# Entry
Amino acid sequence: MITGLAFKNILGNGWRSLINVVILSIVLTGMIWMQGIYDGWGRLARRQMQEWEFGSGHFVQKDYDKYDSFTWDDSQAEIPSSLQQLIKDDKAVPILYSSGVLYPQGRMTPVLVKGIPAGQTVLSIPSAELKETDTTSGFVPALIGSQMAKSSRLQEGDIVTLRWKDVNGVYNAADLIIARVIATPVPTVDVSQVWIDFDRLNEARALENNATILVFKNKPESTDLGADWRYVSTDEAMAGTDAMINAKRAGGYVLFTLLLFLSMIAIFDTQILAIFKRRKEIGTLIALGLTKQQIIRLFTLEGILYMIMGTIFTGTVGLPFFYYFATKGYPIPQEMTGYNIAGMSEAIQCYYSPGMVTTTVLIVLAVTAFASWLPTARIARMKATDALLGKV
Amino acid sequence: MSEILIQTKKMTKYYPTGEGQFAALKDVTLDIREGEFAGIVGPSGSGKTTLLNIIGSLDSQSEGEVLVLGQEVSKLSAKESARFRSNQIGFIFQTYNLLPVYTVYENVELSLLLLKMNPEKRRQAVMDALEWLGIADKMKSRPNQLSGGQSQRVSIARAMVKKPKLVLADEPTANLDTENSMRILETMSRINQELGTTFIFSTHDEKVVKHLHRVITLIDGKVAKDDNRTGV
# Structure
């Protein structure tokens, strides 16, 4: 009965009800959309990093520390024999890291040199370009990312000198020819990096069949490759990016907490006004046999119904909006591609997981219920005889 | 002789004021029997509405006893008090107090919704009440589309639809012209005679007083006169 009464009151309130429903719907749409953007960004970043850097799981040499460049020259180990067939079948790819110095136009630029087998397809690095077709020139084909090209002012066909140190501590140098500038969405395979052939780098460093990381196309069956190798799951590899996305998400929450707060003020004010305007009605309902608790429930339910109607409104009117951003995506401004964050190079397609949508709706519902209930404390203090006379 | 429906014994009601307390009712002792058509008359501030509110379990006395339909109303819990009003008492107000967003039908139906009556019986009861009061053609109208007389008829229908033993009417004709006042009084008188419903009015309208079978005059919160015109 209370639900029926609440529903009739909301319909009877006409425009005021519609405004509340629309405001709640806008807040809900905004919150779901914002979460969708962050979740979509996270999924895109994960996919791109899997395609370009981590595969479906990878091993790193036990001494390798990506935050300590001094470890890079010593972080390599022989590829386990058990992996040879996988590498041959192009289901795993070894990559050797080495620090080096590049001299574009005579300037000195420290770089991370990465050796990857030419022609592999586990990662999206177009390594086929690393095959030495002209062995007479003496130039070593190299790939660089577009940001590296920009910062070092190199372009395809340029010759540039690279200096490195082999495992015996001997410095050596070679001229590289930029075979291709690759447009990668993953800055961690681009910024300050040069890609050359895996065997070539092994040879240059006086190594044979050594690698720093081993990337798997599919999730490896075992996470134990011996004492030299440490398994890094996709989640662990993504931890930094996830943390950054979550930090951005937290910033977004501040904005929507404010919006939610404003919409709750609208609900709160509507309730206060309703209690003031409907005090005779409250008195009449008490005279007819409702308890104050039932009337408090009625008013609170009216607020909750606004939210439920707002959710339905969002689910119908907002559907084309959500669909558009889930399919066409949110275009990233050109300026943001320089932020060195994965997932920032193409339109981010919103991803709305059922869990995220349900949680968001429940949070807004709980806050709405609270904002609707809070002003009804006045009803509990109200005397029926005063209410009947229109007094508060 | 019919049963005593309402019994008050040395009932006093105080309201707090800035300097102390004000006695709205003083030592009111009354018996009202089933089927009476009685009125509480007196000037403004004499305690008429306070007395009706206490009988209707909307307020409670400060001292003394009040028995309504055998129940000591001041001892009822909030829930029991609400159930008591819902089941036993019909209210009619000076300003009709119809719920503005509901239709006439829904306003009348509201009393029965609280009684959790089944939909079929409820519909029949509402239609009977509306027809009885001659407003069935207005069942889909909203209160703002009704005249004062029609609104008060809806208010009576809402009070009567649950067939209560007692109806408390607070200045029911105060907002009506003479013609409508007479019609409303005739309607209530007919209900009293045909259904045996006990009516208690608070009024200072002379037109109403003429129709009453018993006139209890309150002055400054005290029963100054109790004129039973039926000789019972």
Summary: The first strand of chain B starts at residue 4 and ends at 16. The mean pLDDT of chain B is 91. The radius of gyration of chain B is 17 Å. The beta strands of chain B are 4-16, 21-33, 37-41, 63-68, 71-72, 89-92, 166-170, 198-203, 214-219, 222-228.
